[in-house]
Amino acid sequence: MPDFVAMEERTAQYANNTDTLCKSTPRMKGWPVMPPNGGIKFFEPRLQYTPGGADVDLNRVVDKPQRRNVAEQGPSRPQKRNPKPNVLNISGDPNHSAKELCGSETSWGPDFVSVSEGIWCDMSAKEAWPLCSSTTEMGCFDTVANKLRGSQHGLRVRDQRSGRDMPHKEFDTVNHWE
Q1: Residues 96-114 pLDDT 10s
Q2: Which of 1, 73, 138, 144 has its CA 20 to 30 Å from the CA of residue 40?
Q3: Which intervals of the chain are annotated as region Disordered (predicted)?
């Protein structure tokens, strides 16, 4: 772990540009649980250092903000985000965000409903859907039947508003978090 050996230039680099240490996922990210499909980031090719231990190429070590349009990515997004596709977790806690979960590049786990947000996150596709209500009766997730409601078009079910295909899901286990 050369990044943590105290050397004069390296120490100065970290002091002058804290992002090279604190905003460097391969350098500082902890992994209490291994993400699926090798989601752990590392430097490839390996970093090069000056004789004093500083990074030769600072552009490689700092995480760059990524702008993504989720609607444009569609099926090209990773589909291995849900190791338990037959499990549904439902939470009423306003601190549990389905919107944030679906929008996170690194999140993975079972499908999730945030009752307080009124959103279901399909973790297999990383797609958020509204919960059904008196004002939203189609193109929504029904928390009583635990499935999406849409218009039947042959063998496919579609959201009437957007025309997008709606996934068919069946849950063997539904966990209600208080």
Answers
A1: 999 999 988 888 899 999 9
A2: 73
A3: 65-103, 152-178
